[in-house]
Amino acid sequence: MEWFYLPLNDVVKGDKSYDWSKFENELEAIKARGHQAALRFYLDYPSKKTGVPDYLLGAGGIDQSRKYTVFNNNGISFSPDYNDPRVQSLIKDFVTAFGKKYDGDPRIGFITTGLVGFWGEQHTWPMNGEVSGDNPSGQNWMPSRDAELSFYQAWDQAFNTTKLLNRNPAKDLGNTHVGFHDDSFAVSTLPTVDWHFLSQMQKAGLDTRWQTEAIGGEVQPPVQPCLFEPAGCQNPPAEDFAEAVKSSHASLADQQPGVGARIQWRGLGEGEGCARPHSAMTSPPPRRGSQPTQARLRSRSRSPTAASRRSTTTGRWSSPSLMPTARLSPHSPSTRSYPASCPDRQSS
Predict the structure, then answer these.
(1) Are 163 and 112 in contact (CB under 8 A)?
(2) Among 28, 37, 113, 141, which has the minimal tally of Cβ within 10 Å of its Cβ?
């Protein structure tokens, strides 16, 4: 599978007015390579121009004062006021139109419910209500929880077939048909600290969600080159990848081009040469119902990208060049199989 970002203004051209041509170009290019897409739309991507549609800018438009310098943004993008009714209508109207047109489209494997926060990652850290050097007045740029939940409910209502992933596990998402995306997979996945991904899944009562929805994640680019090296990773330190996969029941993991094939072949803990690659899914599994997510391992190498955008001190990346070309490699511990050359393994 292949991952891409797209600014919302590539599609939204006016109030409830949509041009899907750029989105179609992305899907068709990925389809032509024999793959499916996994994707996220954004309104605010640090260091890139705003993804807010033009009709909400200019005189009488939305507040554009929330400019920032963190994450090498230097005032290029701005964080929209997600509590503004016009922004809320923009998001929910788009999601409704998106689902009506693309739910069940076999070219799409997974969609992350972005749009809110930096990179569409559902956070505005350090502008998260806590006083810090980067946020001396303790501003909080996230929407109210009721507003945020209304976005996720709109996603749920719009998509009944295509798999969705939300970044932040929470109890109030228990009745929403959505999977979850661990943004620091194999770095803060295992439930050894209360804020780690699986700790939050357990706290929210969602630790069996993998049985009906997809669980995914993003392997931090600074970790990927050393993740499977004998010495491991030191900055930041990495968890055992196979244990993270097993414990989270991950269906997919996002990685940097160039090291992706290594994660596909070695990332399930079988040892090099013991994983049998499968074709990418030809159509996504149904979201409703009780069957575990079915996903397959796909191997395809790509040229390495030198830059990465996550800082080891802030937990974020600095270069915007990486993620639009990063790729997801789906797999499921419940469906993987092993060749005869791995006698100590059994298909499950």
Answers:
(1) no
(2) 28
CB-CB contact of 20 with 54 (8 Å): no
> Cα(174)–Cα(204) distance, rounded to whole angstroms?
8
Q: CB neighbours of 211 closer than 8 A, spacing ≥ 6?
A: 249, 290, 292
Tokens of 87: 């922004």
Residues making up the chain, counted from first to last: 348
How does DSSP classify residue 237? Answer: B
pTM of the predicted structure, to 2 decimals: 0.76
Give the Cα separation of 60 and 200 in Å (integer).
41
Tell whether omega for the bond before 191 is within 30 degrees of 0, i.e. cis.
Answer: no
- At which residue do the structure tokens 């569409």 appear? 120
Cα-based distances in Å from 270 to 233, 308, 346: 19, 28, 11
Work out the widest C-alpha separation in the chain, in whole angstroms.
Answer: 68
Residues 47/320, Cβ–Cβ less than 8 Å:
yes
Site of tokens 């996603």: 155
Beta bridge partners of 328: 254
Distance set, CA 332 to CA 199, 294, 296, 335, 348 (Å): 21, 7, 7, 5, 10
Residue 234 burial by CB count (10 A; 0-12/13-18/19+): exposed, middle or buried? exposed
Each residue's pLDDT tens digit, 149-198: 999 999 999 999 999 999 999 999 999 999 999 989 999 999 999 999 99
Q: For residue 186, with 0-12 CB atoms within 10 Å meaning exposed, 13-18 middle and 19 or more buried, which class applies?
A: buried
Residue for token pair 């009944």? 160
